[in-house]
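Q: What would this chain look like folded?
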Amino acid sequence: MNKKSRFIKVISIIVGIILIIMICIILLLSPISKYLIEKYDYQTIGRQITLNGVSVNPFTGNVNFNRLKIYEFNSDSLFISANSVDIHLTMHKLLSNTFEISGITLKQPNIMVDKKSKEFNFTDIIKKLTPEKINAKPSNLHVNILGIKIQDGIIHYRDKSIPVNYFIKNVNIECPGKRWNSDSLDVKYSFSSGTLKGNMKGNFAMNVKSLSYKLDVIVHGFDLRILEPYVNELKNYGSFSAYLEANLKAKGNFKDANDVTFKGMLAVNKFHFGKNPQVDYGSFDKIQLAIYQLSPKEHKYLFDSVSLTLPHFKYEVYDHSDNIQEMFGKNGSNHQKTGGSGANFNLLKTIGDYIAVLSKNFFHSDYKINRLALYNGSIIYNDYTLSEKFALRVEPITIISDSIDKSQDRVNLKLKSSIKPSGDINISLSINPKDSGDFDLNYHLQRIPATLFNPFLITHTSYPLNRGIVELNGVWNVRNGFIKSKNHLEIIDPRTAKRVDNHNTKWLPMWLVLAIVRDRGNVIDYQVPITGNLKSPTLHLKDVVLNALENIIVKPVTTPYRIRVKNTEEDIQKSLSMNWEMKQSELESNQKKFIDGMVDFLSKNPEASIVVHPQLFAVKEKEFILLFEAKKKYYLAVNHKNNQTFNKDDSILIDKMSIRDGSFTHYLNKKTEGNLFFTIQEKCAFLLGNKFINSKFAHLNREREYNFRINFVKKGVEKQIKFAPPLYLIPFNGYSFFKITYNGQLPEKLVAAYCQMNDLNNREPRKEYKLERKKVRSSHFRSQLK
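A: My prediction, written as structure tokens:
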């Protein structure tokens, strides 16, 4: 063998050995890598790591981790798991002192983020991987991490101190990555809510050195019940729901909360908070902000429109608190317990504080809202502190302002609404946008039944009203915080009903009060100017005092005239309607006389007929039945009686018993213990049941109809009387009543009374209020004169 052959042979052996070594390295590198990762996991990150397999290709730079699992510190619970992790290293750049990951993809990762106090479950990893500060020369090695992707991931967030347990799914994140000599970071993201509805997507860019950022976000139907754990921290009970829609662009800097600029659209839909999902305290269908530019730092708040649709607010006053304080603590005490960081961190409060920061300088900035609108709003006010429930509903509320602009001299706003059961509100406001102490206000409240205020009148005087209409209007001119106003109060034809004798009511002779304040035309008509500073206004009661003195002197002379008017009004009213006192079914003597008159009229006029229209104040009557029957149940229990031994004297005692009698309320509390009830009415309803109350109310109305019919039957004219289906409403006179309409000939007494009343209304002193009295008649009962 010559030297050349031996050389070739040696080279061949060397190449073969190298190839074998390389093949061995390729074959063994993957299992060795898996072994080293799992062996030195604690030394590296302080956590256990497991893998199903590792694939390493040193020639292409591709590395794949299959079924990666990283566990919590000293726990068998998973911190991160992924179906696979693909990493691509740019090998040739290692020769130029550059370590570059040109791509890293996490497929179907499942990440658990736990927070306890100020610490997260990855805080220990950060500390482990953070190098100690030493005075060494900076490394010449450059690191580039590029092409980061997360595909179809799930991220859980848990905070046991609140507690929160929430996750997002379908998490997809793409990031070009970061080069060693670049400070920019760009992220494209999208994800869906975990167990709830909604999704988000957008882009985020940040300069990691200056901390300036840009954010684009599109939100579709995102269920905000993710905030419920934070809401629960603020409330004692109740439910919350809302949905978020947004298409926003923002830019700013993390160093300054005011250094942010927004533009785009933000909306919250189907908002609700209340006692339970069926009972709203506050709600709206949609609030939407169309933002041109919102920049606190540049003092610009420019909106195309701000609109609120179907807002609803219910405010209830209880004996010792109200529904808002019951939910959120006295004076918002629950809100004060939560802080902005640490164990007391509350995301909702943090968002609220941030909004407060953004809006802090609104009125000192350039602001513009091209259109501000509130549509179909409603406000419910219930007062349970009185001897009977007071209820007021204002709807539908509409507020419109076509333009609110600080550069304008005046901003105009109009409010219009109805008042249930009857009445209207109209308010117009013209305000200087640069000075809230410079405005003009015009308001008009009309067609409000005086009987609406009976719960207050009964509680404080024992005397309800059964007639009257209230109107209030005024003009306020305010300059530099000083008021110059005219206020006009009219109450047309107020009349008192029978006294309500109850231990829960005070006594004040309303008939005497009305005699003093009501003029000889049966009208209360006062001008009450208000002047002075907004903080300490002065009421001028000169007109009230002079009118009262005039009534004391003049009215006694006109007593015969006033009696004539009153008798004529009663003749008309009694011919067209018959009132029922609360719980009354037996006819009183004057009612029997009224029915006898109708029977005689029908007997003499066979061609005539009447239709009876029951107008039932069901809400109030059921409340009276409810309170009476609950007190009766208590009375029978403590006096060892039953329905057979119960008599009329017992009934009178129960009527006079206060619903706030100490022993009675103790009885109710014991019977309803463990239930979320704040009112006596709720407790009584729980004690008796709605079915029982409805049956009592139905029986009451059957008795009324029977007692009304019986005389017609006895006289053989029952075919000339017909009962229409009952109408359930809130009557203008504050009582259930039977409205009578006549077909054919009218009773002579009724025609004469109408003629006499028209004559009286066309003469002084009633002529001045003729139009107002027409409103009373149209609201109280409509005549069937043809």
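The radius of gyration is 40 Å.
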